[in-house]
Amino acid sequence: MKLTPYESTRLPIYDVDLEAPPETRWKHLTQKEAKNIGRLLDDCVELCVEQADCYPAYIRPLVVAAGKGLAGLGGRLVDMIAAQFGEEYVTEIRSIAKHADQPLSHVILGNLTYDACQMGGIYGAVGCSSYSCNIDGRPTLVRNMDWVWPRSTGRHTRLVRFHRGRESYTSVSVLGCVGVVSAFCPGKWAVTMNQAPMEGATSSYYQWPVLQRIRSVCDRLGSFKQVVAGLQEYETMTSFFAHVVGTKPTQHTVITGLGDEYRRRPLKEDFLVQTNHYIGQKDLEKHNGPAKWKDEDGQPWICDSQYRANSLAKKLETLPMTLAEAHKKICTSAVTTEDTMQQMVFQPASGYSRVWVRG
After folding, report:
1. What does DSSP say about strands 342-347 and 300-302: parallel, antiparallel, or unpaired?
2. Does the pLDDT of residue 92 top 70, yes or no?
3. Contact at 8 Å (CB) between 86 and 80?
4. Residue ranges in 221-304 assigned as alpha helix (H)
5. How far apart are CA 172 and CA 70, in angstroms?
6. Would you call 230 helix, strand, or coil by DSSP?
């Protein structure tokens, strides 16, 4: 099915109260969407187990055992994760498992899918394209999320409004996931996450999962500067790119998270593009893989990250004048494909946000 504006799908926007106890925050959403959460987790777990041989030896047994839904393992995994970044998010995960009637280990595996793909070297599972520019002096962030792990991601996308009192931000979420991939806070900021290479980066099972780290920063409902600083505070399990814009013409940046260190790439031209390879840092660019290669079995593979980036840069030689034009710039066959599960345009200064999903 084609990408459809979220408002035309008649899907709900769920509210999550950050002042409510973590064990009850997701209860309403989870009970309403229990069957869909189960379907998505089944798809996700099946893929992870099928690709278990890709994972490093230290994580492979955990993936296989988690796929079997072992209750004891689920508890141990939760305890281990809680020891790294606190009880609140794991309490939310336990609550989702309980109210959706799903094995705890399945919900954990679903919430660690991005980091698991990174550790397993499964690139292209989370391929994304984003660009930002100013329209009438207002930073505008346009983004595709090509998340095909699993392909049912699009139809299981929901908008979730996290709020604390009168302040709120909206996340373009996937059912059962407590982390944040893309989020918008009107009058303050917007942030989207792209998959980054693991070459040149570090990984550690004992650091923050990337999506939970982004959620932690967004939950503070701080300023653009505070979001940018917060995303660089702690080490993460794996690498990532975070594209962030604020409300002032100079507030554009891409943060490259390397697991144990961070780099920033500011707006130097009229636009800032990020796909899934290193840009603008020569010591990292040497780790970018080839555009085409064959694996040990002779299977040919293609990485289109640089092709997508170059295509966007070419399109942006003429900058968009309106939000509709900004959306159109990313809707080209080189950038938007059948793998695009979510598409969005965010402009924090005006409060504009629009999301498209694949059914």
Report:
1. unpaired
2. yes
3. no
4. 224-230, 282-285
5. 30
6. helix
